[in-house]
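Postdoc handover notes: sequence design on the structure in folder B. Input tokens:
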């Protein structure tokens, strides 16, 4: 008997992004190494539907709708230079120095351009209805729609806010996948 296609959704335990390195028409997408989104707080996916109406003879004759936009926001609690590199591009994250004067640096230059990436987020084990299972949300191709909220705050923690637009892959047409697993599966 197949598992249920209906589940509750409780919490988010992990999220990772992976740079999209190739998306050839008629081929398969290729992704770089997974990068943790540290301290994930939530993943909000929204879409816009464009509705067209056909009117004539003083009445509504027909109506049609199309999905015109999908956006995702995923605030997270910790700054990750590797995640910035995966989303914004820029120079490679470089480590330098020796203890006690080590540094890790990501830099954004004038030629930096946001890069497409995949986002995958998962509930904790039993975050769905299946004991021992989980639920994964995958947005196969995202591009930042605003600059990530970076900076510092007086007497408080600073949360990094990320907003992106999801688009279908050229290679497969995949836009969003939601997977209910009978047995919890790590993001891979």
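Designed sequence:
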């Amino acid at each position: 008997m197949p598992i249920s296609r209906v589940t509750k959704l409780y919490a988010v335990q992990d999220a990772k992004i992976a740079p999209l390195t190739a998306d050839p028409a008629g081929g398969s997408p290729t992704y770089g190494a997974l990068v943790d989104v540290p301290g994930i707080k939530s993943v909000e996916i929204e879409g816009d539907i464009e509705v067209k109406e056909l009117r004539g003879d003083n009445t509504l004759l027909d109506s049609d709708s199309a999905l015109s936009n999908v956006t995702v926001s995923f605030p997270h609690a910790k700054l990750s230079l590797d995640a910035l590199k995966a989303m914004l591009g820029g120079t490679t994250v470089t480590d330098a120095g020796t203890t006690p004067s080590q540094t890790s640096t990501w830099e954004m230059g004038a030629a930096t351009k946001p890069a497409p990436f995949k986002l995958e987020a998962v509930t904790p084990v039993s975050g769905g209805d299946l004991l021992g299972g989980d639920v994964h949300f995958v947005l196969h191709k995202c591009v930042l729609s605003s600059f990530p909220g970076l900076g510092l705050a007086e007497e408080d923690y600073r949360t990094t806010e990320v907003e992106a637009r999801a688009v279908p892959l050229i290679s497969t047409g995949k836009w969003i996948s939601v997977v209910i697993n009978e047995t919890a599966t790590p993001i891979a």
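Context for whoever picks this up: The first helix runs from residue 81 to 88. Don't rerun without checking with the PI first.
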